[in-house]
C-alpha cells in the first residue's frame, strides 16, 4: 500500500476504493500493472516500485489499489511479488523473466508483456470490449462464465 506521508509517493494516482474495501463486481477481473510512477505501465516485474491494480468489467475500468513492491526482506523476491498480486487474473509488465513468469502463473495470474509500456489505465480499459463480447475461453473462465458459455466451436458429426 502506498504511504500518504511519503513524498516520493506523491506521483502515484489516487485509489478509487480505500485499502481493505471489498471490490469484485460480477464479470470483472483484476489487472495488476507494473509501474515505476504515475499511472504508467513501465515496470519490469522484478524491479518495479508499485503494482497498480485495476478492476475491469465490460462497463467500467477503475483503479482499486496501489501496492508497493517492497521486497527488500523477501528471501525469494519473485515469489513475494507474485503473492502480492495473487488476487489478480492478469499481470501487465514491460518485461518479466521466465522463472518469475512461472511463479506468477503458479499463483493463478496470467502475465502479459507490453514491451512498449504506455498508460496502465488505457491498457486495462482496452479489455472492456473483449469482456463485453466474446472473450477467449481462459478469460471467460476468469470472469466466471459457465463452461457451456465458453465453447467457441460446435462439433458436428458429418
Brief synopsis:
The chain is an alpha/beta fold. 22% of the residues lie in helices and 22% in strands.
CATH topology-level fold name = Nucleotidyltransferase, domain 5
What CATH first level would be assigned? Alpha Beta
State the order of secondary-structure elements, H for helix, E for strand: EEEEHEHEEHHH
Query: For the record, what is the CATH homologous superfamily label?
Result: Dinitrogenase iron-molybdenum cofactor biosynthesis domain
Major β-sheet, in short?
Answer: 5 strands, mixed
How many strand units? 7
Structural class: alpha/beta
Distance between the termini: 58 Å
The poorly predicted ranges are: 1-7, 16-23
| Number of discrete helical segments | 5
At CATH level 2, the architecture is 2-Layer Sandwich
* Share in β-strands: 15-25%
Overall average residue pLDDT: 84
Count of individual domains = 1
Report the radius of gyration as a whole number of Å: 16 Å
Helix fraction bin: 10-25%
- Net shape: globular
Describe what you observe in this structure.
The chain has 158 residues and is of the alpha/beta class. The protein has one domain: Dinitrogenase iron-molybdenum cofactor biosynthesis domain (Nucleotidyltransferase, domain 5), CATH 3.30.420.130. Helices cover 22% and strands 22% of the residues. It is built from 5 helices and 7 strands. The strands form 2 sheets. It has a 5-stranded mixed sheet. The protein has a two-stranded antiparallel sheet with strand order 2-7. Strand 3 and strand 4 form a beta hairpin. The chain is globular and about 60 Å long. The relative contact order is 0.18.
